Structures are given as structure tokens and as C-alpha cells.
Amino acid sequence: MRRPARVAVIGGGIAGLSAAVRLRDRAPEGTEITVYEQSGTLGGKLRTGELAGQQVEFGAESFLMRDPAGGESAAVALVRRLGLADRIVHPSVGQAALVVDGRLRPVPGGTLVGVPGDLGAVTTVARPAAAADRDEGRPLLGPGEDVTVGALVRRRYGDEVVDRLVDPMLGGVYAGRADDLSLVTTMPALARTARVEHTLAGAVRAAQAAAPRAPGVPVFGTLAGGLGTLIEAAARESGATIRRDATIRELSPTPTGWRLTVGPTRDPEHVEVDAVVLAVPARPAARLLAGPAPELADVVGRLDYASVALVTLALPQPQLPELSGLLVPGTEGLLIKASTFFTTKWGHLRRPDGLALVRASVGRYGEETQLQRSDEDLAATVHRELSAVLGTPLPAAIDGHVQRWGGALPQYAPGHTDRVAAVRTALRAGHPTLALAGAGYDGVGIPVCVRSGETAADEIITALGGSGT
Q1: Where is the Amine oxidase domain positioned along the sequence (predicted)?
Q2: Coil vs helix vs strand at 196
Q3: N or C end: fewer C-beta atoms under 10 angstroms in the chain?
């Protein structure tokens, strides 16, 4: 008689919890699922908090509503699966600004993560080198080729488009720089069309045409009540046993599956399972892979991460522009790289007393020393720089919060996608009951992480098709 399969999900972020929900939905009835979370809190970089009596996100604030093909994103599908669709809300203000030469200028529309298909549309913020984007009789990228975003865009459009537009766009998402980040991983649609098109403008337009934006469909959404409700519902609906403060120190293969060493060195616990979803960042994943697959651990562990701090200020009746927020190019010499005007952007958070919540993101890849400042210094610097950028002194904050995310955002170097694919191929061949999931492998953003967790769960279900006794 077969016993139920036992699956361990290591990591209680959105990727791990999405894997747990998928396992509950699709694995054979009776499958035992346990989620191991090293910290005391589920959700990873999704964390809803409170400041001055107001709900606020201390991590990711929203999700894309559509997937690259124009359909419903994996995040929206999960929200529906969890019965939270009636809580989806959208920004009431969508226009953002760029800080250029110390002044606010509207972010040009019609770009692809800042890369324009029409150079005339960005002349208010940058002077493109239009003559450089000429047809040279061959596609921009060769088969299988990957380059940094900055290398391609600088070559075709010049430095200002990268420094003033593309770099702050990518920096707002990855806290990295266009000159370091893989085109294939961060902008896969553009990479695909660049293998066909002979000009960058043509490649951008082709990528946009391949995924047309549906009229009237909002780009972003979040949940009334905060994204913490998504985490709570996923943990509940998965039916998994949730173990918080449970550090997995070692992962060892057994004849029938895996042995997990849990807890402190002086008092370890050993758990036998049939399969594992490894939904943790690359470096802890590499440590766990070092025993069963040292050569793969070396590849996984090469991925670097950027650290950031999110500084949120509660301001009484500030004079804020009707903007969702702003982006700051690194060339401006400011500490802040982006800011969100929460209570302007999200209408459901506005208060009749005029109290506003403003959040700024601090920390670029390679500038981690800036984050060694005290919370008080970070908050004061953010207040001072925002006042200067907005051209009017902001009132003194009545409350504030600094959320530090150490090693939070993966920095995908060229070739990342191929390296991850090779690791997964090797795992399927040698350790088919072990699957990787999360931002360190498939990209950032809630929909990507949800899909990554679900795909890992599907692989485990397939691998366990004939297992169990």
C-alpha cells in the first residue's frame, strides 16, 4: 500500500507558498506538504505593516495584471484561486516623473522599460544618438547571444538614453545598473525581437506589438488590506504544515528522497522527505546544494544581489504633485533612487486628514556602504532630498519606518538564463525530486515568482508519479 508522498518546501516567500498551493491542488490526495521558513515571518519581500495608523507596504507594493502574452498574470490567477479577487485595487494616479538636472519631468510614455521605439518621444529627458541606430544588414543579436541592456542601448541610442531613462527604470526594479544587467533575463521580449530586427527602434516596436496592451486594462494592481493578505491566504489554502524559525542546515540525498537537517548544530532534527522545492535565494540554495551537487552549487552561488532600504515617512498635509512617484538617475548624485507617493498613487489609502505616506528606495548595487548609515540619518537624508527635488520643504514627519532588505534583489549578468537552464537540466537528470524556485532563477516581480513556484511544484508532481510505498 502506498503511503502519501512527503514534500518539503524550503522558503516561505511567495514562490515557496505558490509551490505549496500548487502541490495541494494537483498532487495526489494525502500528499504531506511542509513549508520551512528560516525567519519568524512568512512572505519574503512581501510585508504589509502600519505607520501612523495607516496600512503600508514595507516590501513589494503591487503586481502586474497581465503576463507577457497579454493574458492574466500568474499573480492575478493566484489571487482568484485564493478567493481574493474582490480585493484587487488599481492605482488612481499612474503618471510618474524623472528627476533630470534637478527638475521633475514626466516619464515619457511608449517605452519598453525605458527603451524607446520612437526617439522623438524622449527628447524632453534625453538626447538620443539617433544616427547610430542604423540598419547594418543583420539582427542586433546573434542566436543565443546575451549582452547587458546598457551595452545594446548605448551602442544604438547613446549615453543619455541609458543614464537618464533606462538606468533609473531598471534601478527602480533591480537596484542595479543597465551596464551590468542581462538583456535576456530582464527584458526577454526585447531580446527575442533583437534576434530578428536590424534596429533597436524596430526591435522595441516589434516587442510592443507582440504583447499589445489591452485598452482600459490597468497595468498594476494590489490588494485592499495589503499584500500580506495574499501570504496569509496562500499559507492557509495550501493546507501545509508551516514551520517558522526553522533553518535547514543540510540537504542530503537518500535512496528514496532527501534528508533535511533542521535547527541548530547542537540539537539538530533530521526529517525524511520524498521531494524538495528549494525556494530560497541563490546563496543559501548553493550552500544546500554543496553536498548533493557541488558543481551546480558553484554555478548557482555566482549570482550576486543588491541590498536596499525602504524609508517611509508619514507627513502631515504635504504639498505633493499629482504623481504616483518619481525615479532618480544615478547621475543626479542623490541617495534616493526612487520614491512612491503612496497615498496619492493608491486612492483607497487616502485619508481625510491629509496625512500622506511617502516611501523612498535607497541603495544601488555596488553602493552598499551608503546603507551603513543609521535609520535616523537615512530618514533625514530622504526628507531633505525629496524636499529639494519637489522644490518645496516637506513638513516634518510625524512617524517613519526604515525597512532594510539585505541581499534582496538579484543582479542578473549576461548568460544567467542559460546558466539556470543548465542547472535545472542537470537536476532533472541527477536529482529529479529537487526543484528550484524563486527570483534568483526566473526574475523579479510577484507574477514571475508565483509562476516559478508553480512550475517547480509541477516538476515535483511529475517526478513523484510512481514514488511512495
Answers
A1: 14-461
A2: coil
A3: N
Strands 220-223 and 63-64: antiparallel
Alpha helices in 338-408 (DSSP H): 342-345, 375-390
CA dist 297 → 248, 419, 430 (Å)? 16, 12, 14
| The domain made up of 108-210 is a member of CATH 1.10.3110.10 | yes
Q: Residue 467 CA to chain centroid, in angstroms? A: 34
Q: Are 62 and 230 in contact (CB under 8 A)?
A: no
| 3-state SS string for 215-272 | CCCCCEEEECCCCHHHHHHHHHHHCCEEECCCCEEEEEEECCEEEEEECCCCCCEEEE
Ordered by start, the domain boundaries in the chain are 6-45+224-303+412-463, 108-210
Class of domain 6-45+224-303+412-463: alpha beta
Q: How far is Cα 130 from Cα 127, in angstroms, rounded to an integer?
A: 9
What's the farthest any 2 CA atoms get from each other in the chain?
74
Torsion sign over Cα 150, 153, 154, 158: negative
3-state helix, strand, coil in the chain (%, to 5): 35, 25, 40
- This prediction has a pTM of 0.95
Q: What is the mean pLDDT of the chain?
A: 94
Distance CA 449, CA 48 (A): 18
